[in-house]
Amino acid sequence: MMMLTFEDFPLGRLGTYGPRHVTREEILTFAAEFDPQPMHLDEEAARKTMLNGLSGSGWHLCSLMMRMMFDAFIGRAASLGSPGVNELKWVAPLRSGDDLTLDVDVTEARLSKSRPETGIVTFRAVVRNASGQVLCEMISPIIIRRREGAQG
Amino acid sequence: MRFYEDIEIGQRRELGSFTFKAEDIKRFARQFDPQRFHLSEEEGRNSLFGGLAASGWHVASVCMKMIVADGQRAASEAAARGETVAVWGPSPGFRELRWSIPVLAGDTLSFASEVETRRTSDSRPEWGIVQIRNRGTNQHGELAFSFLGTAFVPRRRPGA
What we know:
Chain A is α+β, with helices and mostly antiparallel strands.
């Protein structure tokens, strides 16, 4: 299979991906292991919080976004990993039964100075629910290998 | 948990430590981040990471686990002293998340938090907004992970 390389990520819209259905079971399982706060575990307690009802952990949403990006393109890209996340906004809560879609744009692509065989591609990723409401937005760079023989 | 009025810039809390086992790294990766260097020791050794490396989102999620556990400890201590326990609101997000060096199978990260900014909210007078830098340092004393998180913290005297 041809791997996607740095050259395959021009500026602009890369694609729209999903939907990914999220179950109540998944939300509870993730929260029990990593984020056991009442708003992520208990419907009754969650109703009394600012989020007004059971919601998935924000870190669960991030992890689901990662998986959607993997299935969309990272899984077939010559990715060497990411140095981090510039900014992430949790805009609205993840709810059980949500069908998530993901829009990905390339906002910046530049060659690496320290590793000339690689480039750094910055992505803007936005997750929405089925009614089009934005749940989270992320800006994050990924290090991607350049095409074989590319130089300079 | 503290109220907004109890929070000062520079306040630091040790959150505890966590050892990343190979089986946990692979289990998280299979579900959320099945890149080859998170799934196999050999692929990890052949990657930039130099060994089986935890997904960055696994490291972040474990940090959250430590933050929640610390908050629960602090809340039960406050309750034992007969104090009113502040219930923090949800987070609107974070900035400057850095996976500075890989977290490899067997590594132990010690997590700590430090308050960087605090301000009141004009639109929500019952809440203050606090930015906290969370850091994970490995067993060699190297900073592996950090981010600047934002939290809504309730005010003891709204609007005062």
